[in-house]
Each structure stands twice: as structure tokens, then as C-alpha cells.
Amino acid sequence: MNEHYSGPGIYIEEIPVDIPPVVPVETAVPVFIGYTERVEYAGVSLLNRPIEIESLSDFATIFGEAPAVGGFTIEIDADGGIAGGIFDPNQKGISRFRLAYALNHYFLNGGGHCYVMSVGDFSSPGVMSEMSAEHLRGLSALAEQQGPTLIVMPDLSGIKPIDPDDETLIDWIRGQYHEVLRMALTQCAELGDRFLIADVWGGDTAKEGVVEAFRAGIGYDNLDYGAAYHPFIETSLPWRWDLETIHLSQPASRAADGSLVQPGRCHNLALAELLVRGERGDRQAFLGVYRNVRVALDQYSVTLPPSAAIAGIYCKVDRERGVWKPPANIAVSAVRALPTAIDDQLNEQMNIDASGKSINALRHFTGKGVLVWGARTLAGHNNEWRYVSVRRYCSMVRRSVANALQELVIDVDGKLVEEMIKASVKEFLMEQWRAGALAGATPEQAFFVNCAVNPDGERSDPLAPRVELYIGVAAVRPAEFITMKIHL
């Protein structure tokens, strides 16, 4: 009894029922799946575990660096110029694992904190059968984890065949790649809290048929939970050259009078040794050659699938404008060129196709650079879910409401709680409408909320839902609602 009651009578004490506010969940937290230098840190295995990082420095500390490119010899002429031996690592296919480079591109394009899941180290043979199996195991482990909201797999999409003209091998590699994508789409749809950013395999070449092959292989299920981008990007990121294993050849030659000229002082030296000798002695002889070699090497930069940069752009748009804004008409940073040009005609074919599988283009515009020129999901024929922003926004609404009210429904009962749940969700959607996320001149045009507590009466099944929420939001146009049913 309350000690302040001063006499007999009827007293009414109102006990408030606390309804937690609905707070928007994070929407742009990618998980990058691929290969790392280390699969163990501080005595703990990193394999198939999503590890959260805040920066590229965090990645280097935990997982190590990108694989170094080396093991070849550069020919130097008598004057210290380049005579041969320089090649493009993108074409040779000797650098199969590019996750570290992809993460760099992600952060340069606005990315924030993210997860990295290592499915193996650089000792992996890098053949497609094993890479696809390792990615499938990684996805299975990821299904048990909460936190990531975007899936990116840059190592898998960048694998190249030994023989680029072997069409049978190419078709088999594509099939393995598409199998992994289909599993990722299934996971996204079943969990409802993540979205796949896919690359078109073969997007680093100008070959015809890569878009058609992607559409044929991606399947027909759960396409609204993913988006694809084409082509690859020739970035401005330099390769990590292995100065210890890149050697110079400056062999003996004949002078004009026919006499034998002995090999130059740089003959059989590694680049690292060349740099050391230049600091100790003849700077012109050694450092001059070193500079010539570095200029020749640095003409080549890393070509990457676009998914990492797109993930960074998703993060930037969500952070600065809102998840309901389309991640399109935005310049991609750290780009030198695109391996293939997409004109208006090809862009239309990629955007709208009889199969309904839309693919978003990256295009170069004079004075603007390379822009993301599309914001559709793979479900181009789905009137409700054809846009990336709509799919991701509605997933955010569903997860935000479910997370906020999940603990509440354990003990709820009665009309009072039903109205309070409706009020809490309406307040959340009202804030969304004020922020510009929902269309409509009035709240009534922008959303509706219906709620039923114990909709089927007393439950004999303890696993049956205690609360059913029906939420409609006008995410695209006024009076056109996208409805969601949420069981709590």
C-alpha cells in the first residue's frame, strides 16, 4: 500500500506499460567474402568467421596484406631503359586474390565499418571448383550470423580461366559462380536482413555474351534480394609489387666496333637490392634505373569487379541521404577507365530485358567520370521490388519493427497493448515520412498500420505468433502501398 494514502477510499494507480521505440537498424554493413594472407590471429582461427573492421588498417593488422606480385625478370638496356619483360598482372591472371584491393576501393568510395570473412589463405590453389565450395561453406556459416546486411564476393567473381579462349571451361566456371550467387540470394530472402551485390562474371573483357550468360545462370528465385553491376573497373590502385623477387637482366652486348660490352651493374639484381645500392653508392646508375622500372610497373593498376565500390556507395548514400534514396547517378572514385564502353542501346538492353533480369551499368560521361547508371534489383519485372532502394528500405522497416517489439510480445495481451504497439509503429513511420522516406501529402497517404494480438484466439501451439502486424508504406508513389506482414 502507498504510504501517502491519508484515509480510506478508492485509489486508482496507473501502471505504465513501456513500449520500446522503433529504432532504424543499420542498412549498409557489408561482409566481404574472400581470401586473406592470414586465417589465424592471436591464436584464434579466422576461417569462416565474419570479423568486424573499421578501416583498411584494421584489415592489414588482422588479415595481412594483398598478395605481392613478383617472380619475373625485367630486361634493361645499356642506358638503363626498359627493354622488355614488363606485363600487366590483370592479363596474366597471376594475382587471383584481390580482396585487400577490393576493400581499399570500398573505403575510397565512402564505405564504413564492415565485416570480412576469410574462406582461405593464399595457399589455396585458386581453381574454381575449390573456390566455389569454400564460398558455399562461408555462406553457410554466415547464415548463422547477425550484423551484415550486404554480401560481396570480389575474389569469386574475379577468377579467370587459364585459357581465356576455352569456352567449355568458361561455361563451367560461370556455372560454379552462379551456383554460389543463387545460394546467396536464397539466404538473403530466407533471413530478410541482407542483400546481395553481384558482379557479372567476365565483366573485365569486351567479349559479347557475358550479360546474356549471367541472366541465363542466375536463375529465377529471390531476384529482388540482389542487384548486379557491369562492367569491371580499371582502378587507380597500384599493385603491391614484390621487390625481392623482381629481378633485372642487363646482359652483355656488342658495341658498334664489335667489341663485347660486359653486363651492366644492374644485371641479376632484385629491385630491392637496386634500391639499397642506390642509397649507398652511385645514385645515377642504380636509382635512375629503379625509377625507370617503377614508372614502367606503375602504368598497370588493379582491375576489380564493381561490387566493392558499389557497396561503398550504398554506405555513403544511406549515411548522407537515406536508404530510401537510389544509389545511382553517383561518381565512382579511384577509376582510370572501364574495360568496355556501354552506350545507350546496350544500357537499355541491360536495364530492361524480356527475362526481367535487370543489370545496372557503370558508364563514363565526359566531364563527370564513371557513374553508377542504374538502381534496379535483378527482379526487373516485379512492380513492387524492382528498385534497390525500395527493397532495402522495406527490409529495414521490417527488421526495425521486429527487433523493437520482439521481446514485448512474450507477455502481451489485450486491446491496450495492441493499440500501444500500433502507436509505436505509427510514430516510427511518421518520423520516416517527415524525413522524406515515404511518399504522400499526408500520413494517411504514406502508410497504414494494423495490429492484432492473439489473432486466432487462445493458442494451442506455443510457436504460433502472439502478434500480427500489417504495415503498408508508399515507398514509391502516393496511394501505392507495399504491404508487409510481420509475425511477432
Automatic annotation (TrEMBL):
Pfam families: Phage_sheath_1C. InterPro entries: Tail_sheath_C, Tail_sheath_structural. Residues 382-487 form the Tail sheath protein C-terminal domain. It comes from the Bacteria. Belongs to the myoviridae tail sheath protein family. This is Tail sheath protein C-terminal domain-containing protein. It comes from Microbulbifer marinus. The lineage of its organism: Bacteria, Pseudomonadati, Pseudomonadota, Gammaproteobacteria, Cellvibrionales.
